[in-house]
Design goal:
By secondary structure, the chain is of the alpha/beta class. 40% of the residues lie in helices and 23% in strands. The two termini are 16 Å apart. Bound molecules: calcium ion.
């Protein structure tokens, strides 16, 4: 699973980024302080860092000194009117920047482009007899496309990226639908049933008692 570190002290922005990226099947870690980010970077490798400029502790530019030797790609999150921040970030080796406030789709596109540049994303995923092309968002079995709704596709991708892992209903709901799972909704179960039939995963997509579902390959 691609791991993304989100360094942003504004909680609503941080939450929006985490939710949007999680729904795409990325693993996300949020920190709200520059020093915490530096500590975490020493302990754990990440595939991409989304880095705010103004942070408590040490700022985004100072953090670049920690990040550069690691070779981890960076997208700066900059304030609206700060051209100098953008230029400075790029000069320091950032791969891209995004300006607040941003559209989620733009964020996802930029993340996708940078990950591709570093060959972090394989756009063809093989799972359970299916080929998933994440660029064209097509799902094929033996070269024949299986038409899926957007939610079914997101659901499929989540399992394909996490094979062998028991995923909680709460997690599935949060990643695919966004928002909090109330525990009453049968949305997840109904969509899983339909997805199983459509892609022929009746025996692969197993229910895990009191948890949710697991893809067995
Ligand atoms: Ca900030």
């Amino acid at each position: 699973m691609i791991q993304i570190l989100i360094v942003e002290d504004e909680k609503p922005i941080s939450n929006l980024i985490r939710m949007s990226l999680s729904r795409q099947g990325y693993g996300c870690t949020c920190v709200y302080d520059g020093n915490d980010a530096a500590d975490l970077l020493e302990q754990k490798p990440f595939d991409l860092i989304l880095l705010d400029v103004m942070l408590p502790g040490c700022d985004g530019f100072e953090l670049m000194d920690y990040i550069r030797p690691l070779g981890t790609p960076v997208i700066f999150i900059t304030a609206k009117n700060s051209v100098s921040d953008r230029v400075r970030g790029l000069r320091m080796g950032a791969d891209d920047y995004i300006v607040k406030p941003f559209e989620v789709l733009e964020l996802l596109a930029r993340v996708d482009v940078v990950l591709r540049r570093y060959n972090k994303v394989d756009c063809l995923l093989e799972a359970g007899g299916l080929t998933i092309d994440t660029r064209s968002m097509q799902v094929l079995r033996d070269g024949v496309e299986i038409p899926l709704t957007r939610k079914e596709y997101d659901l499929l991708l989540l399992f394909a990226r996490n094979p062998g892992t028991a995923l909680y209903r709460e997690t599935i709901y949060e990643r695919v639908w966004g928002g909090d799972y109330t525990g009453e909704s049968r949305t997840v179960d109904l969509h899983i049933q339909r997805l199983r039939k459509k892609v022929g995963w009746e025996k692969r997509l197993k229910a895990v008692s009191k948890v949710g579902y697991r893809l067995e390959l």
